[in-house]
From TrEMBL:
One of its GO terms (molecular function) is DNA-binding transcription factor activity. Residues 3-71 form the HTH gntR-type domain. It holds the Pfam family GntR. InterPro entries: Bact_HTH_transcr_reg (IPR050679), Chorismate_lyase_/UTRA_dom_sf (IPR028978), Tscrpt_reg_HTH_GntR (IPR000524), UTRA (IPR011663), WH-like_DNA-bd_sf (IPR036388), WH_DNA-bd_sf (IPR036390). GO terms for biological process: negative regulation of DNA-templated transcription. Keywords: DNA-binding, Transcription, Transcription regulation. This is GntR family transcriptional regulator, mannosyl-D-glycerate transport/metabolism system repressor. It comes from the Bacteria.
């Protein structure tokens, strides 16, 4: 059964927003122009725009036009914050669902990143991070058992950084991050509620304590619908 025309039009416009073809504060064509572009009635166009407005992607200003709305939470790449801390500070609702949590022996690649011996016991954890109840990040984390013998699913459903710093008394120093675009596999797409091969971001990070000990290696797949990275480049002048 095919989708209603207004939903097809809404999804087409949404893809243009997600891909960056339509940027924040860009103005959309008029309703009449959209009628001609998609060869549909004005009622159909209005229903499509209303749907996108409800999703927080558009804002209509009377007498001015319909604009792409900025609805993304910001990730400051130069300030190390936990996901929950970052999102809630921007007035959004963050939540976490743990879908995999088990002990296993570190394989060579993971052991290399964690700077431990192959076969050392580690936690393997998969979490879905949501913003306002929408899945935004699929995260695979690896953490040494030796550092966190009492780590639990309950802890990983809340703030990992709060647990590390407040409960364990460790001091976090830095996170080395590598970001690149990838295409969503079928498994990632399923958890992030997107289509297979949809373009997403893959963020790999290795996090260290002040003594240089690695406490986590993680791979995050970011849908990019409600999350954007903010960089500030400064030119050093002598």
């Amino acid at each position: 059964m095919s989708k209603p025309l207004y939903r097809q039009i809404a999804e087409t416009i949404e893809k243009k927003i997600r891909s960056g073809e339509l940027d924040v504060e860009d103005v959309l064509p008029t309703e009449q122009a959209l009628q001609e572009i998609y060869n549909v009635s004005r009622v159909t166009v209005r229903k499509a725009l209303e749907l996108l407005e409800k999703q927080g992607l558009l804002v209509r200003i009377k007498g001015s036009g319909t604009y792409v709305k900025c609805n993304s939470a910001k990730h400051d790449a130069f300030q190390l914050k936990g996901f929950e801390e970052n999102i809630t500070s921007q007035g959004r609702v963050a939540s976490t669902k743990v879908i995999h949590f088990q002990l296993e022996q570190a394989q060579p690649v993971i052991a290399k990143h964690l700077k431990i011996e192959v076969g050392t016991l580690i936690y393997s954890i998969i979490r879905i991070r949501t913003i306002d109840d929408e899945p935004e990040i699929l995260e695979q984390s690896y953490m040494p058992l030796s550092l966190f013998p009492d780590l639990s699913v309950k802890v990983m459903q809340t703030s990992k950084y709060h647990y590390i710093e407040k409960q364990k008394g460790y001091q976090i120093s830095l996170s080395r991050q590598d970001l690149k675009p990838v295409l969503a596999t079928s498994i990632v797409a399923k958890h992030l509620n997107i289509e297979t091969n949809y373009p997403i971001l893959c963020l790999r990070s290795t996090s260290e304590l002040v003594n240089g000990e690695v406490f986590e290696y993680s791979i995050q797949y970011l849908r990019g619908f409600q999350y954007r990275f903010e960089y500030i480049a400064r030119r050093g002048l002598e």
